[in-house]
UniProtKB/TrEMBL annotation:
Keywords: Acyltransferase, Transferase. It is an enzyme of class 2 (transferase). Gene3D superfamilies: 3.40.630.30. PROSITE patterns: GNAT. PANTHER family: ACYL-COA N-ACYLTRANSFERASE, GCN5-RELATED N-ACETYLTRANSFERASE 2, CHLOROPLASTIC. InterPro entries: Acyl_CoA_acyltransferase, GNAT_dom, NSI-like. It comes from the Bacteria. Residues 5-144 form the N-acetyltransferase domain. Its EC number is 2.3.1.-. This is GNAT family N-acetyltransferase.
Length: 145
């Protein structure tokens, strides 16, 4: 990971268009600036990584402070993937989430081995309702519709 990375959890001066471009490039989908503003504003924990003033990584966790923290939307620019930046973002969010009875993570299919390093294990009872179930099935998030 580059030594020049600056960490922040502040969103007051966050360039939401830059965050949208990061999620598109990562690739974590096409999320509008307004959607990301709402999601990050409503998240208890946020982790933003800047390199030379440029947003290169982000992640967040929805949490209630005692029972459950849900880590989601971890994204790293392709230019910084493989540098340990994603690992550092997840580690920071896990550390912030300590004290919760459970820490849950929603991962892109195929990335499970990466998250096992942090102690995450596959749940047998996880279920979801997706806005577009056919797309979720096609992308490997669901076993069946």
């Amino acid at each position: 990971m580059p030594d020049t990375v600056r960490w922040s959890d502040a969103i007051d001066d966050l360039d939401w268009d830059e965050l949208t471009a990061l999620y598109r490039a990562a690739p974590l989908g096409n999320k509008s600036p307004a959607t990301l503003r709402t999601a990050f504003s409503n998240s208890m924990y946020r982790c933003l990584a800047y390199d030379a003033g440029r947003l290169v990584g982000a992640g967040r966790a929805l949490a209630d402070g005692v029972d459950c923290s849900y880590i989601c939307d971890v994204a790293v620019l392709p230019s910084h993937q493989g540098t340990g930046l994603g690992k550092k973002i997840v580690a920071r969010l896990v550390d912030l989430s300590r004290g919760h009875k459970k820490i849950i993570l929603y991962a892109v299919p195929g990335k499970e081995p990466f998250y096992r390093r942090f102690g995450f294990v596959r749940m047998k009872t996880a279920m979801a309702i997706f806005e577009n179930p056919a797309d979720a099935l096609a992308r490997g998030y669901l076993d069946e519709v």
